[in-house]
Amino acid sequence: MSDFAVRPSRRHVLGGAAAGLAAPFILRSEVLGQSTFDWKRFSGAKLDVMLVKNPRSDLLQAHEKEFTALTGIQVSSEQIPEQQQRQKAMIEFTSGRPTFDVCMLALHVQKRLAAKGRWLEDLRPFLADASLTSPDFDYADFAEGAVGFGRQADGSIDTLPHFIDFWMVYYNKEMFEQKGVAYPKSMDEMFVAAQKLNDPAKGVAGFVSRGLKNANIPVWTSWLLGQGMETVSPTGQLLTDTPEAIWAGEMYKRMNREVAPPGTVGFNWNECQTTFMQGRAAMWLDGIGFATPLEDPTKSRIVGKVGYGVTPPGPKGHHSALFGDGLGISRTSAKKQASWLYLQYMCNKGNQLAMLKAGAGSPGRSSALANPAAREGSRFPKEYFECLAASGKIARAGLPQIIPVTEFRDVFGVGLTNTLSGADVATELKKATEAFKPVLEKSEQG
Amino acid sequence: MTAIDLPASTATADVEKPQKLAPRRYYLFALPALVLIAGVIIFPWVFTLVMSLMEFKVGGSVEFVGSANFAKLFADARFGESVLRTFWFTILAVVLPIVIGTWAAVVFHREFPWRGVLRTVFIMPMMATPVAVALVWTMMFHPQLGVLNYLLSVIGLPPFAWVYDPSTVIITLVLVEVWHWTPLVMLIVLGGMAALPSDPYDSATIDGATDWQMFRFITLPLILPYIMVAVVIRTIDALKVFDTIFVITQGGPGTASETLNIFLYLQAFQFYNLGYASAVVVVFFVIIIALSLLLLYVRQKLKWNA
Q1: pLDDT digits (tens, 9 = 90+) for B15-39
Q2: CB-based burial label for A292 (10 Å; 0-12, 13-18, 19+)
Q3: Do residue B212 and residue B264 come from a single domain?
Q4: Phi and psi of A53, rounded to 5°?
Q5: By CB atoms within 10 Å of each CB, which of A285, A396, B74, B145 scores lowest?
Q6: pLDDT in tens, A251-303
Q7: Is any Cβ of chain B less than 8 angstroms from the Cβ of A265?
């Protein structure tokens, strides 16, 4: 024990008293880091924001009043259904005069388009500018996977990863218990488990996933990630007819033909969700962002019985397919700095935590996931949060980071759908690869 | 009556003068309509035609490629299949409502109790918007949870795949069209039947004709012009149907219900290939014009006074 602790001097006592008196002010200043930051410097500005229609955008709009009270900046935002929003973004950015300052982008579809068209402002100068970035913003708090997803190949950061979605396995715990089946430890085991749980006579399928063209691609890529491989190499080469891709295609085919409900060839996520929610399937592979209705007693028959499992490992890899949305500032906006304040505020720790608590999706920030407050009063069990955290650690892009993502999904989606009608996987993938190759090559030229 | 003799030449000049000037005066009045038509109809068409000769991808370069888009189109198996599928869908979606609608018109033309109420119920599907109709049918088609398979199970039949099988998707979509648009055909034909003269029927009754003979030899020939009107309207509608198919199947499973409109939508608004999509529009336009002219020619031939 030190001499100071045993016999404090008069100077120490006076110093301690002064520190004690000053402490509340220092702490307050640290807690409200924003108090030292000038949020009002762009007061009077008016921002136009284009969002995608979803529960997360509802929350963003709900926060607008607080943002205006804090900054004096008015926000005019609109939510547009996903497909139309993407079309509007494409056309407006291409016109060179978008009508909005801030835009929500689907990173899994529009990331490379945004880079090629130079749609968005690089956020790095803003992040480096202490006069523009609140000290409590803490960009390092965004999960590594999310940050990587939002970063372009040249290192520029043109979006804040507001929302990330992981593919995982929803499973019906009651069905598993009744048949004495354990949660699968590998993709091959998953098929075996689905066979055991499959009971067509009772109208229960062992497994359900998307079969509809275009929508079915993440199912295939999820299996492919189990081979430690994506559909396009880092150098831009298509890996879609490799033995690994064919293995993933075979997995897709047998899971959707042998242990799935009839008609999955036309199933999108909503049909899968309805089937699982009504207790007609034992497992469902899809994004964790679709979890909310499963725990809603007015919509679901399996409330409290839902298990949230991390996608099992494949033969050569263990990954969860990653998708996400980002918020970016239009490069042609005349109000970039005010827009940056909007981005900061909407993606701050409190609002990201609110998103998780509301069950609106998984936020890009690690602190939100780690915060015990997220679980308090949540409709989701502990397992849901554990699945989110574990999936985040093994997340990898679920779609190729190329420009013609939509064509990719269409061409390969049709090929995969054909396999559900009995077509040979290798032949369909080879055909699709040949059809898509010139489209990919051309997209990089123009 | 007092006759006024005027020199022939003067009278002719007075009559002819306004006739010569009239068209020039009327040009001014026609100008707004001409400008409107030029801006709204002619310009978009010329622009589409020009775009069909371009390699034009949103966000990419624009270059003149001549007829390359058309050459690519005719070599595109998916386009060819979508054309055939469009024709198959159109034939079914025209013939079935015409047959059922005509039969319904004959039934509702007769007097029977509750006729007014039943006629109102029959035409109700027509009042619903196509997207709402499509959403409701989508739920009903669900293979496990849809009401249609439940009804089949009640009468001991196995479940049907409906729109979730490539081999049954088109006929199922036609079913939706039939449910939605048969009332329109019924209304058109019923209107025609109300205008039929009663004399032929009186004569036929005296001659001892049966109901079928009266329908076959009197009603049908007389209402054929009205049926042809319904055929023209239904053909154009069925050719351009998009919302129902897109909402229910998005052209799937695979490409099993991908009609020309869905193919066009994908090229233009999903892949942003505006040049190629414009070529599809031009071909589609030619098909619609050719079919419309054919149907109008047939209609002209079937007119009562023809």
Answers
A1: 555 555 566 777 888 889 999 999 9
A2: middle
A3: yes
A4: -70, 110
A5: B74
A6: 999 999 999 999 899 999 989 999 999 999 999 999 998 998 999 999 999 99
A7: yes
* B262 at interface of A, judged by CB pairs closer than 8 A: no
Domain range holding B146? 68-305
Name which of A211, A410, A420 is nearest B266 (Cβ-Cβ). Answer: A410
| Mean pLDDT of the region B128-150 | 93
Structure tokens at B161: 């795949």
Q: Are residues B20 and B149 both part of a single domain?
A: no
Kindly determine whether residue B144 and residue A264, on different chains, have CB atoms separated by under 8 Å: no
CA distance A398 to chain B (A): 19
Number of domains observed in the structure of chain B: 2
CB A306 within 8 A of CB A295: yes
Q: Does domain A2-165+322-395 have CATH number 3.40.190.10?
A: yes
Phi, psi values for residue B208, rounded to 5°? 85, 25
β strands within A160-218, DSSP E:
160-172
* CA B157 to the chain's CA centroid: 35
Strand partners, A306: A172
Whether chain A has a CB inside 8 Å of the CB on B135: the answer is no
Residues B22 and B153 in one domain: no
| Residue in A91, A261, A407 closest to B271 by CB | A407
- CA-based nearest distance A390→chain B, Å: 33
pTM attached to this predicted model: 0.84
CATH 3.40.190.10 in chain A is located at: 2-165+322-395, 166-320+398-445
Q: What is the ipTM of this complex?
A: 0.80
Residues of B with Cβ-Cβ distance to A213 under 8 angstroms: 250-255
Query: Do the domain assignments include residue B4?
Result: no
Least CB-CB distance to B58: which of A90, A407, A421?
Answer: A90
DSSP A139: G
CB A349 within 8 A of CB A141: yes
Which residues on chain B are in Cβ contact (under 8 Å) with A417? Answer: 252-254
Instruction: Kindly give, in sequence order, each residue whose CB lies less than 8 Å from that of residue B158, ignoring residues fewer than 6 positions away.
Output: B152
